[in-house]
């Protein structure tokens, strides 16, 4: 298939209305487009449940790729340590992983899962989904190589040799973009561009070899953003 649009979505963080607003502008066509999500689908935002349902409903759609973010990693570790499920707050055992996750946006997700009454079905499905999420993907089209991961990487290392911690957690390239000296285009989420001095739009840096996609959906000025890497067309939430 010839890719006509190589689309990438930044962090959603449970902001369902913002995500839907951006997604509906894209008019995704799996027969000609490829769409990659950089992770962090939940946490911080108050509407994680419809985001979870949408993602699970599209997880096997052609030419959609969902990557793992650090918030998926935290969610998985916390929930795997909870023996009693999600019946109520009293049923959730406070483990060290849960205590780490809650103040990092997990509190909003857990509250909404419990309030929705859907946690019993959604939780096991989401955990299975996370187990299958890749940490990165590579796309080659129009003579260019694109690397996608949630947070960071070492441009000089092959993707198979990257550390999971760096891929999920680090911010070096976002804060030191001049260190992207490779020929590939590296596309990252994780670091809200507002936090490092940019406007809330995708940032195309280093002559197009580094792209920052987290436009701080949960911040007061934040948006959910999608970018077509082949044309530079930006689709953002209202």
Question: How would the blueprint of this fold be written?
Answer:
Layout: E1 5-9, H1 16-26, E2 33-37, H2 48-58, E3 64-66, H3 70-80, H4 96-101, H5 106-116, H6 119-131, E4 136-141, E5 144-149, H7 164-169, H8 172-175, E6 185-188, E7 203-205, E8 210-212, E9 225-228, E10 234-236
Parallel strand pairs: 1-2, 2-3, 5-6, 6-8
Antiparallel strand pairs: 1-9, 4-5, 7-8, 9-10
Helix pairs in contact: 2-6, 3-6
Shape, please? Answer: globular
Low-pLDDT residue intervals, each spanning 5 or more residues: none
Overall mean pLDDT score?
Answer: 93
Number of helices: 8
Assembly category: single chain
Would you mind describing this structure in some detail?
This protein is 31% helix and 18% strand. It has 238 residues and is of the alpha/beta class. It has one domain (5-236): Metallo-dependent phosphatases (Purple Acid Phosphatase, chain A, domain 2, 4-Layer Sandwich). The strands form 2 sheets. Strands 3-2-1-9-10 form a 5-stranded mixed sheet, with helices on one face. A 5-stranded mixed sheet has the order 4-5-6-8-7, with no helix packed on it. β9 (225-228) and β10 form a beta hairpin. The radius of gyration is 17 Å and the shape is globular. The mean pLDDT is 93.
């Amino acid at each position: 298939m010839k890719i006509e649009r190589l689309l990438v979505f930044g962090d959603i963080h449970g902001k369902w209305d913002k995500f839907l607003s951006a997604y509906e502008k894209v008019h995704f066509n799996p027969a000609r487009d490829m769409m990659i999500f950089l992770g962090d689908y939940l946490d911080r935002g108050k509407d994680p449940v419809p985001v979870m349902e949408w993602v699970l409903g599209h997880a096997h759609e052609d030419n959609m790729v969902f990557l793992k973010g650090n918030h998926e990693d935290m969610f998985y570790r916390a929930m795997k340590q909870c023996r009693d499920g999600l019946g109520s707050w009293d049923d959730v055992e406070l483990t060290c992983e849960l205590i780490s996750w809650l103040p990092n946006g997990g509190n909003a997700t857990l509250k909404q899962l419990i309030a929705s009454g859907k946690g019993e079905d959604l939780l096991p499905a989401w955990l299975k989904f996370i187990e299958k999420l890749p940490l990165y993907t590579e796309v080659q089209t129009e003579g260019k190589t694109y690397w996608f991961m949630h947070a960071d990487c070492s441009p000089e290392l092959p993707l198979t040799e990257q550390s999971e911690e760096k891929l999920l957690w680090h911010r070096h390239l976002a804060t030191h973009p001049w260190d992207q000296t490779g020929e590939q285009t590296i596309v990252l989420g994780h670091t809200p561009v507002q936090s490092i001095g940019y406007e809330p739009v995708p940032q195309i840096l280093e002559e197009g070899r580094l792209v920052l996609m987290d436009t701080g959906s949960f911040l007061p000025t934040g948006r959910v953003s999608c970018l077509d890497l082949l044309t530079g067309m930006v689709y953002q939430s209202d």
